[in-house]
Amino acid sequence: MGGGVPPPHPPANPNCHNRMSHFTTITTQIRDVDALRDACGELGLALLQNAEARGYYTQRTHGDFVIQLNGPYDIAVNRQDSGSYGLTADLWEGAVEKEVGQRFGKLLQLYGVHKATREARRKGHLVSRSQKQDGTIKLTITGI
Amino acid sequence: MKRSIEVTISATGGIAIEAVNFKGADCEQATRFLEAALGQVKGKTKKPEFHQRAATKRTQNIGS
Questions:
Q1: pTM for this structure?
Q2: Is the dihedral of CA A104, A12, B40, A125 positive or negative?
Q3: Domain-located, residue A55
Q4: Which of A34, A86, A90, A112 fits a disulfide with A73 by CB distance 3.0 to 4.6 angstroms?
Q5: Partner residue opposite B22 with nearest CB, options A21, A29, A103
Q6: Does the beta carbon of A85 lie under 8 angstroms from any beta carbon of chain B?
Q7: B34: helix, coil or strand?
Q8: Rounded to whole angstroms, how far apart are CA atoms B14 and A141?
Q9: pLDDT (tens digit per residue) in A34-79
Q10: Which residues span the domain enclosing A107?
Q11: Do B19 and A20 count as a contact with CB atoms less than 8 A apart?
C-alpha cells in the first residue's frame, strides 16, 4: 500500500459497518414545538403561537402555531387528535415549496435533525452533523 | 469497535436510523428513544449480527 493521504472528508461507506445490527426507517411526525422552532430558526423563519396563516387573497386560517414565510402564504401548524402536529398551507404555484421544500420536506428534515439532536444530547450523547451533496443530513451519535 | 447511532435525514424528511457495532437487544435498546421521538416506524431490518449474543466471545488457542 502506498502512503497516500486520505481525503479530509471521506464519503460515507455503508460497507464499513461490519457489525451493524439493525436499520430503521421512520416517517417524521412533528410533536415537539421547540424542535420545530429550531428548524424554523435555521430556515430564517418565525414561529408564532396562536396566529393566523395567510392564504390566497384575503383568506386566513388559524394555527395553534404559524410559520411565517417570506412569500405570500404561511404555514398553519395544528395539533391533531393523534397528538402530532399537521401542516397546512396554500401550495398554489410553489411559493411555499420554494421556502420549505416540496411537501414541506426541508422543514421536516430540519425538524428531524433538531429533534434527534435534542433527544441524543438529553441522554448525554455527543452529536456531530454533516451534510451530503444531495442535501441529506447525517447525524453521528457517539458517547453511548 | 466504537458504538454509534447514525441518523440519516433526507431532503424530503425521511429518516433512517442505523445502530453501528451493537449486538442483539443492546441495539434495539439504543435506538428506541430516537424511534419513539421522531415519528412512526415504517420498517426495521435486522442485520445478521443481531442474532449474535452480546456476551459470546470465545477464543480457542490451538497448538500454541
A1: 0.81
A2: negative
A3: yes
A4: A90
A5: A21
A6: no
A7: helix
A8: 18
A9: 999 999 999 999 999 999 999 988 899 999 999 999 999 999 999 9
A10: 29-116
A11: yes
